[in-house]
Design brief:
- This protein is an alpha/beta fold and 607 residues long.
- The chain has three domains: 180 residues, Enolpyruvate transferase domain (UDP-n-acetylglucosamine1-carboxyvinyl-transferase, Chain, Alpha-beta prism), CATH 3.65.10; 154 residues, UDP-n-acetylglucosamine1-carboxyvinyl-transferase, Chain; 240 residues, Spore Coat Polysaccharide Biosynthesis Protein SpsA, Chain A, CATH 3.90.550.
- The protein is built from 21 helices and 19 strands.
- It has a five-stranded mixed sheet.
- Helix 5 links the parallel strand 6 and strand 7.
- Helix 2 runs parallel beside helix 3, helix 3 packs parallel to helix 5 and helix 15 packs across helix 21.
- The radius of gyration is 31 Å and the shape is elongated.
- 42% of the residues are buried.
């Protein structure tokens, strides 16, 4: 299971940096692995302002948080003009609502470009006069106006509030404590990881499955984006906490099935940064999605409403334009789409590509679910859709009703055949299935080990992703099943490497069918594909088995020669199968085989 260390919350750390400057605390040491570029921008701006009393210029690049927080902090500097500038996009982002309030408190602002926007120079000839009364602060464009004023000691009134404002108030209260009382929240949570960054790993688990551990997360976080836990729960991601080690464990769970008139409604008013990964996830999974409260997104690093619409329209068909927006780029990459610019990602998550590439080296687990990701076209089309979207070099294929193996294997082969065992069942039908399955599995393993594989099962199989996609035309897409045997034939014909890992650690578990009718239908479906097999060795092997069973029908004494060998196969694979069950299976098998074969070949059903 992969463990990731995400960057420290930039919302928390940005506020800590401003409060430390306001209260003249020693600046914190920032580790390169923990901090994103947005935090570095704020730190550099504070150093530039505090290292002199002369006029200075700070370049805030494309950091909207820095634009609001540094503007408010610069206004507290008595008679020190500070010029604030940044990228063209930053110079389009809202700031005038905050400047008007700062001017009312004693600041003077000169706009150097468009009125009401950066670049501008701000100074306070006599310092700010902060009233005791609450200041009314607009939040229609951003809640950061209110947070910026709170950080410099103002008392504000906002309607409605938000988790970001609550976070700022909590930190301000801690910093107001006497110096001898080390702030509890600072002591405990200064290194809390970023929930906004975690959202992309929620997206990853929702789409591809598997499990991840994310370090340094707390269940009662002040971060508004911790709401991601609830948002992704209906999308099939289960969140649990290791409270002792402060770790967040993500794993794939049950996904909500939406009816014809239902949708996944999410209000992003207090968590706007979650919109891109949630939108991308719903699009890939085919979940109807209805976002609410996204009006502020037009003022982000891009017009994020427009950027997300473009991403969903183009994703998978062409290169997604990121608009230099880090969250659009990460959401698109995780969804499986190419992106025009990944450099912008360092803004909030410098090690994202390292972490992403680490997961690419791992193995995705593909579990096609009927009615959810098969588009009603069958398992092969579901597999093609899911495998096309996957990032990893290798794919572990697993049926929906299979109990996974304890561990995932590693391989360099193009196809790795893994073992299965049948468990449970006390009726005669179930016991005979278990005996038959043990024999089939032993033949599968023995022939594969000898380099002449004649069978495999899509219920537990590892395949190189690109090789599977290349083989798709050979899988007879017009036939709803048989993806595993047709795949094996294709790989044998093309001379690709086929290996086997017969190890209990990699053994998945299946359950027997409970009725004779279901069993015969399943086996007839298997037999009905036999005429489509083209591999000479596989056809000869099947013909030998058929001939031996017909010979047993004509001369029952053949059973005396067959049974010891076949019983040894069964017992080697499943020691719990009794002698009586194995013998009964051997006696009935020729009749059963003929019924299944004739039923599969003569039935009008399209197997």
């Amino acid at each position: 299971m992969t463990t990731l260390r995400l960057p420290i919350s930039k919302s928390l750390l940005s506020r800590h940096l401003i409060l430390r400057a306001v209260h003249k605390w020693r600046k914190p040491k920032l580790d390169d692995d923990d901090c994103c570029n947005d935090v570095r921008v704020i730190q550099r701006a504070l150093v530039a302002i505090n290292s002199t009393t002369d006029p200075c210029t700070v370049d805030l690049e494309d950091n909207g948080t820095a634009l609001r927080f540094i503007t408010a902090y610069a206004a507290t500097r008595v008679n020190q003009p500070v010029t604030i500038t940044g990228t063209p996009r930053l110079c389009q982002r809202p700031i005038y609502g905050l400047i008007r309030i700062l001017e009312s408190l004693g600041a003077q602002v000169t706009f150097l470009g468009s009125h009401g926007f950066a670049p501008f120079t701000i100074t306070s000839p006599a310092g700010l006069t902060i009233p005791e009364d609450k200041i009314e602060v607009p939040t229609s464009e951003t809640t950061q106006f209110a947070s910026a004023l709170l950080l410099i000691g103002a008392n504000v009134r906002v309607k409605p509030s938000s988790p970001y404002i609550s976070m700022t108030r909590a930190l301000v209260r801690e910093y107001r404590k006497p110096p001898t009382q080390h702030p509890n929240y600072i002591k405990q949570r200064l290194r809390e990881s970023d929930w906004s960054a975690a959202a992309f790993w929620y997206e990853y688990v929702a789409i591809y499955g598997g499990e991840l551990i994310l370090e340094t997360f707390y269940p009662n976080s002040l971060q508004g984006d911790s709401k991601v836990q609830k948002i992704f729960e209906p999308l099939g991601v289960v969140s649990t906490f290791d409270l002792k080690h402060h770790r967040l464990h993500l794993r794939q769970g049950p996904r909500h099935v939406y009816g014809p008139n239902q949708a996944h409604y999410v209000d992003f008013s207090n968590c706007p940064d979650l919109y891109p990964p949630v939108a991308a996830t719903c699009h890939v999974l085919g979940v109807p999605f209805h976002p609410l409260g996204i009006h502020r997104l037009v003022h982000k690093e891009s017009n994020r409403i427009e950027a997300v619409q473009q991403m969903l329209a183009i994703g998978g068909a062409d290169v997604v334009r990121s608009y230099n927006d880090h969250r659009i780029a990460m959401a698109a990459l995780v969804a499986g789409w190419q992106v025009d610019n990944t450099a912008c990602i360092t803004k909030s998550y410098p090690r994202f590509l390292d972490h992403f590439n680490l997961l690419l080296c791992n193995m995705s687990v593909i579990v096609p679910r009927r009615g959810i990701n098969d588009d009603n076209l069958g398992k092969k089309h579901a597999l093609y859709k899911l495998i096309s979207a996957a990032y990893t070099d290798y794919i572990l294929l697993r049926d929906d009703d299979v109990i996974p193996a304890p561990e995932k294997p590693t391989t360099t082969a193009d196809l790795l055949i893994l073992p299965l065992r049948m468990d449970g069942g006390n009726t005669l039908i179930e016991r005979l299935q278990r005996a038959e399955y043990a024999a089939i599995q032993e033949v599968t393993m023995q022939t594969a080990k000898a380099g002449r594989a004649v069978m495999c099962s899509g219920a537990n199989l590892v395949v190189r992703r690109l090789r599977w996609l290349e083989s798709f035309p050979d899988l007879h897409p017009e036939i709803p099943s048989g993806d595993d045997m047709f795949l094996l034939e294709s790989f044998r014909r093309r001379g690709l490497t086929i290996d086997v890992a017969d190890d209990p650690r990699y053994t998945a578990t299946v359950h027997p069918l409970t009725s004779l009718r279901d069993l015969l239908r399943q086996r007839m479906r298997w037999a009905g594909k036999a005429p489509h097999y083209t591999d000479p060795y596989i056809r000869r092997y099947g013909a030998r088995i058929l001939a031996l069973n017909i010979l047993q029908l004509l001369c029952p004494l053949v059973l005396l020669f067959k049974f010891p060998y076949e019983y040894s196969l069964i017992k080697k694979r499943d020691p719990q199968v009794s002698l009586i069950d194995a013998l009964l299976l051997e006696i009935l098998y020729p009749f059963y085989m003929l019924i299944v074969l004739l039923g599969g070949l003569l039935s009008q059903r399209r197997w």
